[in-house]
């Protein structure tokens, strides 16, 4: 906060300095021009008056006085005008500096929140691993079986952290280096097929029937990212559906776009959550309560960055308790 206030003031000072320099330059030129004109007028009047020497002697001093007074008035007016302009420039500059710095400020705030959230997310499994290890080490009669059980439990936590850091890496890759991602011709139907395949084991475990319907559509994109994108949506559709339901994935052409739809008959998303589900770390309450649904709230933010890298759009329609439909449209 302090940093931004002082940056704002410094920026305003720079604006003012530049404007003051320009003003001084212009004012000097203006003052020179005007006084030069006045001097010329004075000389012309003097020449006329010389023809009447008596009168000339009388008014000469008066005329000089008038001339000097006129010069002083010009100078004074210029000074007032300059002060006025600098005053307005100061206020406007302060306002503009605030406007210029605001996006940077919010970006840094978001970054701080991100680091805090990420550290928190890593701390939980680490704390649990640490206390398990401590308990095990204190156990004097530790046998191999107990030790293995403990290691297995540790491994689960480590796996969680691993998948968390994978998510983070993926997210930062798209957010920071999205524009560097290699684009090529991609068969979107094939990408959807691979995404379905990645989730078949999970679907089987959750007793969800995965259906895929495709048209042949080719787009310019990054094949791995597109598989990841569709896979994230299918993964969610499975995670947030009760056993026995269907998840339908379709790829089609609509006008100049390729459209991928992932439709589930799951828990749905509350209206108030919809604007936030693409935010990093956001998880709707219903999914937080369901202990068995684990996740970090990063899937959809990665999905959104991938869609943005492809200059597409992602939308969601959902009815609580009935199901959700995620629609991605990508330019062909
Ligand atoms: N198909 C879906 N059905 C219901 N809720 C969903 C669905 N997809 C996403 N959500 C909601 O959006 C939130 C964010 O999703 P995501 O970013 O993938 O995080 P995660 O799955 O790790 O919780 C989820 O926690 C969930 O509340
Ligand atoms: Mg998810």
TrEMBL record:
Its EC number is 2.7.13.3. It catalyses: ATP + protein L-histidine = ADP + protein N-phospho-L-histidine. InterPro entries: BphY/WalK/GraS-like (IPR050351), HATPase_C_sf (IPR036890), HATPase_dom (IPR003594), His_kinase_dom (IPR005467), HisK_dim/P_dom (IPR003661), HisK_dim/P_sf (IPR036097), Sig_transdc_His_kin-like_C (IPR004358). Residues 117-332 form the Histidine kinase domain. GO terms for biological process: cellular response to phosphate starvation. GO terms for cellular component: plasma membrane. Keywords: Kinase, Membrane, Phosphoprotein, Transferase, Transmembrane, Transmembrane helix, Two-component regulatory system. The keyword Amino-acid biosynthesis does not apply. The keyword Transmembrane helix applies. One of its GO terms (molecular function) is phosphoprotein phosphatase activity. SMART domains: HATPase_c, HisKA. It comes from the Bacteria. The chain crosses the membrane at residues 12-31, 74-97. PROSITE patterns: HIS_KIN. This is histidine kinase. It comes from Candidatus Woesebacteria bacterium RIFCSPHIGHO2_01_FULL_38_9.
